[in-house]
Write a structure and sequence with these properties.
Length: 177
């Protein structure tokens, strides 16, 4: 242990003050400029009075273009309660901002031919796990926001997502007949 300490001291003493400052800057700048990566998991249950179809999308809000982190394929439930789970690494590259702003959007056809609910969180600085249970039949005003697309049918949404992500690729939600 003493030999390692001696070698470290010799290396540091041989560096000029400018070199030490340059090393310090190289270490500190990425953290100061907001190049952070934070793990976010959002899970919970969706409840409807009848079986329904749904898809959940986890997105990180960015000023230029939102980052799609994870999403489920469209699923048809067998019952009236379904568990969902989306998760991934949110990366924030905005200067001087070490927080991420994740949000989820849930497309469904509970009681309608097209429904959308969403929820957004501000300024998440650490790895986070959040549980959100949503009753799609009841008062969903706490999960309404402007992030839902204009009203459309579930079939059109599925078809649109297939076209964007490929019918056979990892991101394909549903294979159209």
């Amino acid at each position: 242990m003493g030999l390692l300490k001696t070698i470290k001291q010799q290396i540091l003493s041989s560096l000029s003050k400018k070199m030490k400052l340059a090393l310090l800057i190289c270490v500190l700048i990425p953290g100061c400029l907001g190049m952070s990566s934070i793990f976010v998991r959002i899970d919970g249950t969706l409840t409807c009075s009848t079986p329904f179809e749904y898809a959940v999308e986890l997105v990180e809000d960015d000023p230029v273009e939102n980052d799609k982190i994870d999403f489920t394929r469209f699923r048809r439930t067998k019952g009236t309660v379904e568990h969902y789970d989306v998760h991934g690494w949110c990366k924030e590259g905005e200067p001087l901002n070490n927080a991420v702003e994740p949000w989820i959007r849930i497309y469904h056809n509970c009681g309608t031919n097209s429904g959308c609910v969403c929820k957004k969180w501000e300024n998440i600085y650490d790895d986070t796990e959040i549980t959100v249970d949503i009753d799609l039949n009841g008062n969903i005003s706490d999960v309404q926001c402007d992030l839902c697309a204009s009203p459309d049918t579930i079939e059109n949404i599925k078809y649109s997502w297939d076209n964007r992500h490929g019918k056979h690729g990892k991101w394909s939600f549903l294979r159209r007949k």
